[in-house]
Design a protein that fits this description.
Helices cover 12% and strands 22% of the residues. It has 60 residues and is α+β, with helices and mostly antiparallel strands.
């Protein structure tokens, strides 16, 4: 279990879509978390797998 900055962030990174296997394909998933680098990102929904790194928590 990861120690995210707040409950809202934890909820956001743990959203699972019942339709899309890839979170980058789901328009309802907005935030990604990379465990390897301990980084959060805003998903860019342009058909690829890009995200913009988040340097602070918008809910904290």
């Amino acid at each position: 279990m990861n120690n995210h900055c707040c409950e809202t962030m934890k909820d956001q990174v743990n959203i699972k879509c019942k339709i899309h296997a890839n979170p980058f394909d789901c328009p309802d998933i907005l935030i990604t978390y990379d465990k390897k680098f301990d980084e959060y990102g805003l998903i860019i929904h342009d058909g690829g797998s890009s995200s913009i790194e988040m340097t602070y928590c918008p809910w904290f």
